[in-house]
Specification:
5 helices, alpha/beta, five-stranded parallel β-sheet
Length: 128
């Protein structure tokens, strides 16, 4: 079954690399790249519910933290697993990200590692 993965990152090169890498590794992944939190919320409002969201923390206009809060406030979206994928490597962000989301991955990250961590979340969700 095809899984829809949303990557929300203001760096086009990161979004492209992750999208291309994941889709090349698994033909059951449909990766949609969006450039920011507002675009992510607009996508979700159109009743498009991805299987997982990879969310950058440091973005202009709306941070990943703010985007996360908006997603979790909405009962239609609150069960979407979120992985923070960020260049933010400080201990406070790491602890907050690990507490809030299903995972916290620091950039630069290798595509096989990202895929494995996504697969782990899918496996955990399927076993519930």
């Amino acid at each position: 079954m095809v899984k829809t993965i949303l990557i929300v990152d203001d760096e086009p090169s990161v979004a492209y690399t992750v999208k291309t890498g994941l889709e090349c590794m698994d033909d059951q992944y449909n990766v949609i790249a969006l450039s920011g939190g507002k675009e992510c919320l607009q996508y979700l409002k159109k009743n498009q519910k991805p299987d997982i969201i990879l969310l950058d923390v440091m973005m202009p206009e709306m941070t990943g933290w703010e985007t996360y809060d908006k997603i979790k406030e909405n009962s239609s979206w609150s069960d979407i697993p979120i992985i923070f994928l960020t260049a933010r490597t400080d201990e406070i962000a790491r602890k907050a990200g690990n507490f809030l989301a299903e995972d916290y991955i620091e950039k630069p990250a290798k595509i096989p590692d990202i895929k494995q961590r996504i697969d782990n979340i899918f496996e955990t969700k399927a076993s519930k």
